[in-house]
Amino acid sequence: MNLRLLALLLALTAVLCPGPAAAQMIPGTTGIAAGAPEEQAAPLDPARALSPVNDVRAAAANSILTSLVVAIITYSLALVHAFGVLYFGQWTRRILQFTLSTLMCVSPMVLLLVIYAAKNDIGLLIVIFLAISIYPLTARLLLTRIFDAAADFHFLQAKILGHGPISVFVGYAWPRFLPLTLPFFFLGFIYSLLMESMFSSLGLVSLPHGDTWGSLIHRGLDELLDNPWAVFAPGLAIMGTALVAYACIPAFDKLLAVPRELT
Amino acid sequence: MIQLLAKHALLAAARLLLLCVVIFLILRSAESYYDRDLSFVEFFQAMFSGRLVRAPGLTGLPPLPTAFLYSLTTLTAALLLSYGFGGPLGVVLGRYRMPWAQVLGHVVISVALATPAFLVAYVVLYVSISDFGIFIGGESAMASGGSPRAFAGQCLLLAIPLSLPGIAMIARQVSQTVFNAFPEGSLRAFRSLGITQRMIFDTVIISAIWTPLLRALPFLLSLFLSILIVTETAFFIPGFGYSIFKSAKESDLQSLAVLSLWASTALLAANAFVDVLVEWIDTRNPAISEAE
Fold this sequence. Notes:
The complex is a heterodimer of chains A (263) and B (292). Helices cover 72% and strands 0% of the residues of chain A. Chain A contains eleven helices and no strands. The radius of gyration of chain A is 21 Å and the shape is elongated. The two termini of chain A are 20 Å apart. Chain B contains eleven helices and no strands. Chain B is globular, with a radius of gyration of 23 Å. Chain B starts with a helix and ends with a helix. The relative contact order of chain B is 0.15. The interface between A and B is large, with 43 and 56 residues.
């Protein structure tokens, strides 16, 4: 089963992400995966640079990796939050719930405020702020899912036996939480992709490491009627990636054999 | 009930205070903040009096009452569309487990996921239509201060793409609840016992779907507020989202802070309202009260 999971992950990576080699081969790429400074990049071939499909391919690594990092941070925070709520005492639980409910009220505009307070120059910290704005939604859904199955978890026994929170989390909670909550990782990925695309398509947010699909839409909007593919191609790429991520949820549900009554 | 209200009012006040402190500190740390001499108490008062938003006309921001009217109407229409279509769709999807119902559900959810691409297509279509002189309400829907028909058309124009993810979210939540309320084969068992479908619907489904419907409200509001920035900017509608876009574009940090805080206050109020209502419904439900 693990091999199948690994194969699926590799196939997904190959489909979704052009990878470092592919990204370096495409002129003008300044993605995370490419890792090459801008001044070392090959000169732009005008015919290729004008092609929306090439632009989309060049920006794929940035868009997908950024959303993936945001989703990983969000999912990890949400998992730790859920574990904290279940494992620790009543006061810790109350504080965690209060924090989550407060963060739920922080609209994405506060994210914009932080970015503009720092004069749009916070570098890769933008990923952290995106994760903070997405985290409450994932955490709330994840908590509901875990609470449905909370009767199966025996944290009290583990505490009585003298196990610390880290050993309980790694040895006991994590293997049980993973199959229950993995769908929310993909939902978090989709949400972060959409959020980043929305803000960068308006030109409100720009990532320091190059173009994303959202910023391609922003640039293409000026010539929307003359060259609609400059907008449609990144839009379709966003849609396709979101749909592929959505299609992964039932696949992972089956692979990890989630009990039907908990889905 | 009074105890419940007092508890949630206190919690909401604490959250609001925390948010104000955070925004105050962000503003004080920024270079472009121009009302530096305000103390926290003055800042708090000025925030909610609207004094900190720059005068309309100076920076291209739309007048605040107009912006509120547009956005509130749009949000209300989007919420009505989401609940109006999402609820019945969720019941159908949870109740009928035939392939067509499942395919329909996945199509709706996929359309919701494709909202950014769909929005672009929507804008292109709209611009093309307006290019040929076909406008909603018989006049340019992009011009502000038009007739009530034009205003309604503009709000509906924004509410349709906004409601798509809402419909998907509600449909998914409701179908999951109905599915959990009636596991596979239970409906056939009910029917064999002579219990009518009408009775099942009235007694079980209606009582079961309230909580997920209510719980979805803050999520929807948060989602709509973020998408509103895109839709209003794309269609040049002078609403709340467009004001936020303009403030950010002109690096008017103070206006951005006030508008962010207002949006957060709306979310806070929705959250508190839902928490009170859900707890009240739970305390009235004998099964849950006894279990507790």
